[in-house]
Amino acid sequence: MSALEAVGPFLAATVRTATPLALAALGEVLVERAGLINIGLEGAILAGAFGALVGATAGGLGGGYAVAVAAGLIVGALFALFVIAMKADQIITGTALTLLSVGATGTLYRALYGSSGAALTLPTSGVLPLPFLSSLPVVGGALFAQPPVTYLVYLLAPALAWWLGHTHAGLALRAIGERPEAAEAAGIPVNRLRVGAILAGGALGGLAGGTLVLAQAGTFAENMSAGRGFIAIAIVVLGRWRPIGVALGALLFGAASALQFAFQAMGWDAPYQLFLVIPYLLTLAALAGAVGRARAPTALGKPLSRD
């Protein structure tokens, strides 16, 4: 396959790979705009992936996505309980929830599905080509012949950008992330909005995990989140805490992951491990600020008052 012929499949793989990253990162934008950081996002993605397995086994695609979102919500609710209600450390709580999710999903997977679990196949969302748009040369098939959940990302990113910049609730959430004490003095329900942001982030993390299972792999494997939660947090930094920037950052990471497929299609004789490591190198670069300094929300990650 020539380089030109590989462009279309490469772009399609980029969008497909970026979809769960974008969902998780857009949810994390809301959490971090509220002045919190949820390291437990990795756990929410993994819980969502396992929830998709359980839900799809019992109730098909709809059940799979519903249980995936519910599983992410549970992880988010636990994070909110410990961080908001009990004033626990955010990083320690998030790390503990991720470890809990890894252990719980692995144990339940083996208990429910046994040694035959590896052979499970699940219903997956098929491609839904959009009329006219999917027939555009080069980009049509890549952007507009994707599973429906990808189109949700197309709508969600601008919707969140508008919500954060043009609604009272969105502006209040941003105020909390900058000066929570001043926001509370102004009558903004700080804890209520923070809990809402955490739950939304958990739900989108769960949906990201469900997308991995129901729109991509068609099965579940232990630890299949493979660090995507941490990559999503790096994408938020890369996107400068702005939904559109975050969506574009997810595409960049998706392209880095899709490189292995493009080079294999062109017949390049290079170790695939070389391309697997690229997203993680980008993660380190984003977190280290090598992609350009950006001002984070002022209250991000700071301990919550116990008053």
How would you describe this protein?
The structure is a single chain. By secondary structure, the chain is an all-alpha fold. 72% of the residues lie in helices and 1% in strands. A two-stranded antiparallel ribbon has the order 1-2. Helix 2 packs across helix 3 (90-113) and helix 6 (168-178) packs across helix 8 (190-217). It is globular and about 55 Å long.
How many structural domains are formed by the residues? 1
End-to-end separation:
64 Å
CATH class: Mainly Alpha
Q: Record the strand order, biggest sheet.
A: 1-2
Mean pLDDT: 86
- What is the tally of beta strands? 2
Task: Report the CATH architecture.
Answer: Orthogonal Bundle
CATH superfamily: ABC transporter involved in vitamin B12 uptake, BtuC
- Shape, please? globular
* Computed structural class: mainly alpha
**Helices and strands, in N-to-C order?**
HHHEHEHHHHHHHH
Work out the radius of gyration: 19 Å
CATH topology: ABC transporter involved in vitamin B12 uptake, BtuC
Q: Tell me the strand percentage band.
A: under 5%
The main β sheet shows up as:
2 strands, antiparallel
Helix content: over 70%
Please work out how many helical segments DSSP would assign: 12
